[in-house]
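Reading a protein record of the kind used here takes only a little practice. These numbers are not coordinates but entries in a learned vocabulary of local backbone shapes. Here is one such record, which you should read through line by line.
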Amino acid sequence: MAETTRYRHYKGGLYELICEATLESDPTVTMIVYKASNGTIWTRPASVFFEQIEHEGATMPRFARID
């Protein structure tokens, strides 16, 4: 069985990374498809999903991997 990769959003939500996908309108853009704990499916560019952000004076990942 495949291992689930989980991430915590900097605001606290838990998400499961489902897969990477290619944006149809721009094949140079990799999208991340992920699922919220309530079952909602989301997508955003990998560059945004994995970026470092400023929050309350600290630099942190937008989504931090949890094991």
About this structure: The helical segments are 46-49. The beta strands are 5-9, 14-22, 30-36, 41-45, 52-55, 58-61, 63-66. The chain has a mean pLDDT of 95.
